[in-house]
């Protein structure tokens, strides 16, 4: 086997390993997404309560 053939062989092996890793990662993400999709929905958040800000009820000059 010549040097060129060895380089091509290693490149093809690298491509095969990369493809296998990519497919495995894609399957892992798909499985995770399925688990998330079938999980229980989050409970509704309680609505906020807006407090009134009545500044005119207090007078800085009032000593009482």
Automatic annotation (TrEMBL):
Keywords: Plasmid. It comes from Rhizobium jaguaris. This is Uncharacterized protein.
């Amino acid at each position: 086997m010549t040097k060129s053939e060895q380089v091509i062989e290693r490149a093809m092996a690298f491509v095969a390993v990369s493809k296998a890793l990519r497919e495995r990662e894609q399957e892992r993400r798909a499985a995770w997404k399925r688990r998330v999709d079938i999980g229980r929905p989050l409970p509704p958040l309680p609505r906020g309560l807006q407090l009134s800000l009545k500044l005119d009820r207090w007078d800085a000059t009032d000593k009482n």
